[in-house]
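TL;DR need structure tokens for one chain.
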Amino acid sequence: AQSKLPSDIHPESFSRLPPPQRDSLDAEGKRVWDVIAGGRGMGKTGPAPVSMYSPGAAEPNHHLNQYLRKTVAGPRYFELSALLAAREFDQQYEWSGHEPAAIRAGLEQSVIDVVKINKDVAGLPEKDATVIRLGRALFRDHKVSADLWAKTVEHFGRQGAIEIVTTMGDYVMAGFLLTAVDQQLPPDRKALLPVK
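>> reply
TL;DR here they are.
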């Protein structure tokens, strides 16, 4: 798999950046590293190691993501929101990590496939359809109708509606980072997002 990588991709990080090294950071950078790694160690691929090239941005982004993982909307809608952002930006790395997580969170493959294959939401549970419509309105139309917003608030409350939108935005940011550094999937991870 590595022989097929673009020439500017590092063989350990599978991105345009080599894996960051904790020892090369100043004291504040090491503190942020330890917060993000949480005693588990820092992986070599994905948004966390990429973000460590700017520890000052990495820490608040990490805290936001950790908060959103406990959204009042619940894990099912956290994952659906992340998938919507990953799909709209064709972000293979994020999609391939979040599709299995979405299934573990109780999202049915049939709902995932509506996002993955860009199918109509007809026949989906109303809450799922509302989140997908909201994401598509934000990403494609750049506006949300009064009716769609009211339906979102009806289903999730004001806090849940805002946290769903914030989750989508969080995964847009992660997608931008990974796209900029051309993050590739390591050979042991299967690509789950169809290539357009």
